């Protein structure tokens, strides 16, 4: 009995010594795998940003280019492959700031600089003299555009309307109105019975001052939908 107890103590002592050696060995070796899997927080995952190299071959209508330190929008382009000589891209560009249009040719495959033009939604709040004031509803910051920058689009612009302002280098350079705008008829000849069957149109003055052709059944006080790109009547709201 005594001998058995002694052998058990010796075995336990040897096992304890073996485990101590194993623990020391594993802690000193960085290559030994962890016994328990460690979960890496998702926030610590590395983020990779892909960089695209753009050339004149990537030009299309609507591309924003920076040429001579100014932002331009491609409104026309044509890839040309002459029988002799190098291929090239012929473009028509519109300057966001001045409104001027120019024709410019790029050698095929040449690198191009994109203009960092981005959109932010703002609400048209009121007109201050010759300036149109837009507001960021989250920060209440105001942005102003003159009649020259907005041009003919002023006739579709109504207070409370959400628009997309185009910004470049922190400066507002243009505005995109909603494609479909809802306006109210304030002056039009009264409709007649049978107008729907007869068809035809008549001019109507809207609450923004715009004049559009509307169906004969449209009357004063009616709200209508107009395509801001073409100025054409779409339907009653």
UniProtKB/TrEMBL annotation:
Record localization: Cytoplasm
GO cellular component assignments: cytosol
PROSITE patterns linked to this entry: EFP
GO molecular function: translation elongation factor activity
Name of the featured protein: Translation elongation factor P/YeiP central domain-containing protein
Pathway noted in the entry: Protein biosynthesis; polypeptide chain elongation
Family affiliation: Belongs to the elongation factor P family.
């Amino acid at each position: 009995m005594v001998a058995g107890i002694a052998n058990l103590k010796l075995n336990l002592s040897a096992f304890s010594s073996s485990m101590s050696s194993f623990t020391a060995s594993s802690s000193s070796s960085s290559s030994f795998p962890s016994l328990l899997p460690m979960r890496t927080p998702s926030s610590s995952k590395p983020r990779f940003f892909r960089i695209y190299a753009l050339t004149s071959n990537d030009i299309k209508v609507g591309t924003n280019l920076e040429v001579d330190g100014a932002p331009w929008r491609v409104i026309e382009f044509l890839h040309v492959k002459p029988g002799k000589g190098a291929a090239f891209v012929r473009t028509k560009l519109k300057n966001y700031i001045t409104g001027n249009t120019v024709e410019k040719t790029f050698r095929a495959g040449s690198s191009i600089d994109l203009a960092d033009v981005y959109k932010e939604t703002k609400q048209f709040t009121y007109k201050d003299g010759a300036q149109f004031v837009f507001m960021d509803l989250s920060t209440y910051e105001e942005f102003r555009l003159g009649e020259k920058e907005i041009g003919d689009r002023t006739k579709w612009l109504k207070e409370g309307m959400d628009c997309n302002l185009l910004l470049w280098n922190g400066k507002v350079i243009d505005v995109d109105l909603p494609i479909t705008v809802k306006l109210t008829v304030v002056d039009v000849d009264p409709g007649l019975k049978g107008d729907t069957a007869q068809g035809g149109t008549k001019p109507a003055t809207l609450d923004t001052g715009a004049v559009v052709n509307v169906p004969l059944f449209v009357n004063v006080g009616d709200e209508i939908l107009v395509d801001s790109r073409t100025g054409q009547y779409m339907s009653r709201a």
